[in-house]
């Protein structure tokens, strides 16, 4: 009995001390977090900041999203919306079965979405696995933006996508390799396990490290999109905290999902992330991008997102450097709607090309 | 330019017009009074109902004088004694279910008529008013054969003929609130819609014909205040139900005093919408907007006084203003319109007058930058900041899109300020902390309290006020009880009828 207490106490005290030390541990000095939270950037100060954010009422949020979904976008507004949707698409293939041939076919679709109508705009980017980046770059050829800002970007998913369950070294290697092969944009996943366990500092430090790995040899950076995988975070309060965390750590974009977990992007989640981005802009004047990904398959749905963006953060966000759709089948539905607006008739899936 | 060429709209947010078609309406040039199942001419001078958005006439409407009121009440009395009170609850329910389904079938037509005549956005009449009308009839249809469970003991009795006078803010919905429980309980009805919004009630009369409701069970008479007065004061009505202003409600209470008529009054309000510093802020902003700008603020339970905790006052007002700039004011029939027209010139004048007083009394006025159409009656969403509790706009019901912002420091002060009004119809509380919501709700003297939401209605929930907001409840079981009286738990009739039912069961 006596032995147990004498042995138990120091062990507990040591544990408590270790926990305290972890709380006090300084985090990577990301610029935004330093200016928002202050010089004493620690796990504890980050946690206090994130937990001090206003809560989200789920019923109210979903009601607002549903109300935005009732906007009726017709005629000239619809035509503009359809073209804008195409310009905002990250045309995506993320399959284990991806081959160089599949990537070439995807790129051909990105460059020339509708061979029957030369006025069709091109998509913003193609989004592929890291090892497919060289194939995408060579297939794009002259259409590749190559960091110039005009042309089609190549986005690569990285950091042990989609689960994010790998060591930091692996995640960094994954990222730098994609950047070195020419990726203009990196879509990283956060460590949801760490986030749900309350290790906000770990999630934060990893984003900062991946951001650093996005640095090219000339000192410029590949754009960093941070995937929150909102379907696994489960609550809107978590989504709001993770969005703030990703922005504080230096993300250029916050992205809803990998597309591998259900539910993927939903309108309420996207609305919530847009509200965070709006608040960040109100506070700092800085513009952060938002990318809903997965599950947006129809023009009708995509138009609801455009309305939500325009009425939440303002329509200047309806531009490829601030808003993207992560999608594959969406493009063909938009093309069908577009053809209908030109000809007045609905055609069918045989009148748009496979990717 | 074809649709295909990418237009360069100056702004995407200037959505292209998306008007709801009026071709679904088959309006007659003139409407009579609906008495004893037929449209008949009125004996008063007919009047014209106009669209408040364009000031264009819609139709000519008959005007009921006191002789018409006599005929309508007589028709309701005869239908009560000969038909309706003799039907079983299940049969009454069948008619109500039929009406509910017909309302759903003709929902688009009713929505368009409502927006045309009232000026409210089609989005609201389509998504709120008309679906709730159907819900109300479905709900009370279910009650018709279950009156024993209305809380009044076995075999509660209907009252007889109900005289009902309704306002112009939710013309068809208020009709449903009044007619559905009255019929379910076994009463017959003479109802007078508001002078400026008779159209949807007259289309509803066509629905009653379609539903084959026995003649005289519902009579709809149109006219102005004196028609309503004649109806309410008619000696052969047993029940008076009124929704409208406190001044008229007070007059009705006086006139029916001592007559033995049962009365329910649903009058004005000056609801407090209380926002604590731990509120879910984005949803609270939406709730404030929905609380006061829904239906152009023509809502008796509108959250017209925003009580916001002082430490977040500036942030809330700031966010509110940015949000209001995205509201779209204009053609009520456009599917993207958020704020429609003010119902009448008279009401517009009253809103203007009170707003001017608010400004004179020193409150800071801010108006959303909306383009106001040339014709029709319009008032842009307006906020008055730094309003004191003694200001006229914090005490009087404006009944328009005008919000007064006041601050408080503690929950106790919030409760005291919220209750500091002659009204007591509704209130809202915004906080992420459940225990605080419950504690504050306990202290509020208001009939309806919304937590983290505002202006939500359900037929199962009773609605009504404290103090000058009136008495009696509408909706739910309580709303049913307003059209019934107890047979008495131990009355011989109650005992004998229940006794006979059980004997019948035993022998069958």
UniProtKB/TrEMBL annotation, chain A:
Example GO biological process: deoxyribonucleotide catabolic process
Pathway: Carbohydrate degradation; 2-deoxy-D-ribose 1-phosphate degradation; D-glyceraldehyde 3-phosphate and acetaldehyde from 2-deoxy-alpha-D-ribose 1-phosphate: step 2/2
EC number(s) per entry: 4.1.2.4
Listed GO MF terms: deoxyribose-phosphate aldolase activity
Keyword terms: Lyase, Schiff base
Catalytic activity: 2-deoxy-D-ribose 5-phosphate = D-glyceraldehyde 3-phosphate + acetaldehyde
Enzyme class: lyase
Superkingdom field: Bacteria
Annotated GO CC locations: cytoplasm
Similarity annotation: Belongs to the DeoC/FbaB aldolase family. DeoC type 2 subfamily.
Designated name of the protein: Deoxyribose-phosphate aldolase
Gene source species: Salinibacterium xinjiangense
Lineage, top ranks: Bacteria, Bacillati, Actinomycetota, Actinomycetes, Micrococcales
From TrEMBL, chain B:
Family: Belongs to the aldehyde dehydrogenase family.
Protein name: Acyl-CoA reductase
Domain Aldehyde dehydrogenase: from-to ranges: 40-485
UniProt keyword terms in alphabetical order: Oxidoreductase
Organism classification: Bacteria, Bacillati, Actinomycetota, Actinomycetes, Micrococcales
Native source species: Salinibacterium xinjiangense
Active site: 266
Lyase recorded as keyword: no
GO MF annotation terms: oxidoreductase activity, acting on the aldehyde or oxo group of donors, NAD or NADP as acceptor
Pfam families: Aldedh
Origin superkingdom: Bacteria
Transmembrane regions: none
């Amino acid at each position: 009995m006596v032995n147990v207490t004498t042995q138990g106490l120091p062990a507990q005290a040591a544990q408590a001390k270790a926990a305290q030390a972890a709380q006090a541990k300084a985090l990577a000095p990301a610029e935004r977090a330093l200016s928002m939270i202050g010089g004493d950037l620690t796990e504890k100060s980050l946690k206090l900041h994130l937990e001090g954010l206003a809560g989200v009422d789920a019923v109210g949020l979903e009601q607002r999203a549903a109300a935005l979904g009732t906007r009726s976008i017709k005629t000239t507004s619809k035509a503009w919306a359809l073209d804008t949707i195409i310009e905002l698409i990250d045309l995506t293939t993320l399959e284990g079965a991806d081959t160089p041939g599949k990537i070439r076919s995807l790129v051909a679709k990105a460059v020339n979405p509708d061979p029957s109508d030369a006025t069709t705009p091109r998509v913003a980017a193609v989004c592929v696995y890291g090892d497919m980046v060289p194939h995408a770059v060579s297939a794009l050829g002259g259409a590749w933006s190559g960091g110039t800002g005009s042309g089609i970007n190549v986005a690569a998913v990285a950091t042990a996508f989609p689960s994010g369950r790998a060591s930091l070294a692996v995640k960094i290697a994954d990222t730098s390799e994609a950047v070195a092969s020419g990726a203009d944009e990196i879509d990283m996943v956060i460590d949801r396990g760490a986030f749900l366990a309350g290790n906000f500092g770990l999630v934060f430090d990893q984003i900062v490290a991946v951001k650093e790995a996005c640095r090219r040899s000339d000192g410029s950076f590949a754009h960093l999109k941070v995937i929150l995988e909102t379907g696994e975070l489960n609550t809107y309060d978590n989504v709001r905290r993770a969005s703030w965390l990703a922005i504080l750590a230096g993300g250029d974009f916050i992205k809803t999902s990998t597309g591998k977990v259900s539910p993927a992007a939903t309108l309420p989640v996207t609305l919530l992330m847009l509200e965070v981005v709006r608040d960040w802009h109100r506070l700092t004047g800085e513009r952060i991008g938002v990318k809903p990904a997965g599950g947006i398959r129809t023009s009708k749905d995509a138009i609801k997102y455009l309305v939500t963006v325009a009425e939440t953060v303002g329509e200047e966000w309806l531009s490829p450097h601030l808003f993207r759709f992560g999608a594959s089948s969406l493009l063909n539905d938009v093309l069908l709607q577009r053809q209908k607006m030109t000809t007045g008739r609905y055609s069918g899936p045989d009148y748009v090309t496979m990717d | 330019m074809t649709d295909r060429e990418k237009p360069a709209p100056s702004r995407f947010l200037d959505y292209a017009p998306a008007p709801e078609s009026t071709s679904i309406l088959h309006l007659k040039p003139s409407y009579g009074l609906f008495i004893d199942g037929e449209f008949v001419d009125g004996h008063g001078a007919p009047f014209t109902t106009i669209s408040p958005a364009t000031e264009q006439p819609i139709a000519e409407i008959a005007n009921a004088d006191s002789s018409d009121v006599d005929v309508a009440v007589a028709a309701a009395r005869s239908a009560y004694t000969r038909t309706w009170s003799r039907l079983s609850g299940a049969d009454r329910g069948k008619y109500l279910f039929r009406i509910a389904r017909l309302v759903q079938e003709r929902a688009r037509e009713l929505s368009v008529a409502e927006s045309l005549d009232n000026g409210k956005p089609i989005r609201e009449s389509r998504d709120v008013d008309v679906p709730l009308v159907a819900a109300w009839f479905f709900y009370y249809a279910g009650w018709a054969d279950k009156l024993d469970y209305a809380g009044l003991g076995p075999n509660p009795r209907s009252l007889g003929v109900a005289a009902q006078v309704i306002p112009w803010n939710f013309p068809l919905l208020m009709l449903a609130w009044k007619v559905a429980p009255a019929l379910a309980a076994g009463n017959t009805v003479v109802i007078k819609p508001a002078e400026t919004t008779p159209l949807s009630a007259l289309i509803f009369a066509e629905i009653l014909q379609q539903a084959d409701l026995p003649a005289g069970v519902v009579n709809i008479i149109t006219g102005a205040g004196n028609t309503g007065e004649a109806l309410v004061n008619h000696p052969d009505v047993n029940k008076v139900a009124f929704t409208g202003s406190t001044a008229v409600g007070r007059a009705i209470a006086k006139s029916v005093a001592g007559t033995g008529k049962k009365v329910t009054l649903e009058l004005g309000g000056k609801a407090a919408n209380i926002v604590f510093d731990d509120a879910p802020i984005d949803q609270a902003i939406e709730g404030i907007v929905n609380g006061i700008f829904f239906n152009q603020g023509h809502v008796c339970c509108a959250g017209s006084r925003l009580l916001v905790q002082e430490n977040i006052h500036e942030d809330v007002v700031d966010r509110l203003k940015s949000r209001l700039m995205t509201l779209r004011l204009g053609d009520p029939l456009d599917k993207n319109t958020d704020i429609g027209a003010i119902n009448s010139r008279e009401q517009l004048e009253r809103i203007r007058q009170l707003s001017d007083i608010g400004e004179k009394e020193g409150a800071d006025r801010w108006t959303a930058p909306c383009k106001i159409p040339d014709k029709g009656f319009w008032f842009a969403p307006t906020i008055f900041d730094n309003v004191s509790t003694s200001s006229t706009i914090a005490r009087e019901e404006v009944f328009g899109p005008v919000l007064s912002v006041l601050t408080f420091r503690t929950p106790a002060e919030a409760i005291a300020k919220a209750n500091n009004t002659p009204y007591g119809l509704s209130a809202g509380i915004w906080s992420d902390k459940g225990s605080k919501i419950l504690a504050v709700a306990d202290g509020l003297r208001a009939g309806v309290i919304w937590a983290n939401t505002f202006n939500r209605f359900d037929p199962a929930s009773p609605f009504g006020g404290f103090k000058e907001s009136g008495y009696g409840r509408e909706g739910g079981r309580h709303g049913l009880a307003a059209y019934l009286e107890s047979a008495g738990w131990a009355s011989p009739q109650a005992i004998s009828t229940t006794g006979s039912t059980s004997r019948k069961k035993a022998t069958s």
